[in-house]
């Protein structure tokens, strides 16, 4: 079981420069979406112009 965990960990973090750049792209989009969601929670629908 330990060897499987080590293999799985290495498969997710080991890679060359292209791999890390590729993984940063969706991570950046997810962080941008998380920020937008937090603004929406904080300021409400007025952020998107949906006020009464």
State the distance separating the first and last CA atoms: 57 Å
Q: What's the gyration radius in Å?
A: 19 Å
Helix content: over 70%
Which ranges are low-confidence, i.e. pLDDT below 50, for 5 or more consecutive residues? none
| Average pLDDT, all residues | 87
Form type: elongated
Largest sheet: none
Number of H- or I-type helical stretches: 2
Report the order of strands and helices: HH
Structural class: mainly alpha
How are the SSEs placed, and which strands pair?
Elements: H1 2-13, H2 17-43
Structure, described:
The chain is mostly helical and 52 residues long. It is built from 2 helices and no strands. It has a domain at 17-46. The mean pLDDT is 87. It has helices at residues 2-13, 17-43. It is elongated and about 60 Å long. It starts with a helix and ends in a 9-residue tail after the last helix. The longest helix has 27 residues, at 17-43. Helix content is 75%, strand content 0%.
Name the features:
about 50 residues, mainly alpha, elongated
Give a short synopsis of this structure.
With 52 residues, this protein is mainly α.
């Amino acid at each position: 079981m330990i060897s499987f965990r080590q293999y799985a960990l290495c498969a997710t973090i080991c890679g060359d420069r292209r791999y890390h750049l590729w993984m940063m792209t969706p991570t950046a989009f997810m962080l941008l979406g998380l920020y937008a969601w937090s603004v929406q929670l904080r300021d409400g629908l007025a952020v998107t112009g949906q006020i009464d």
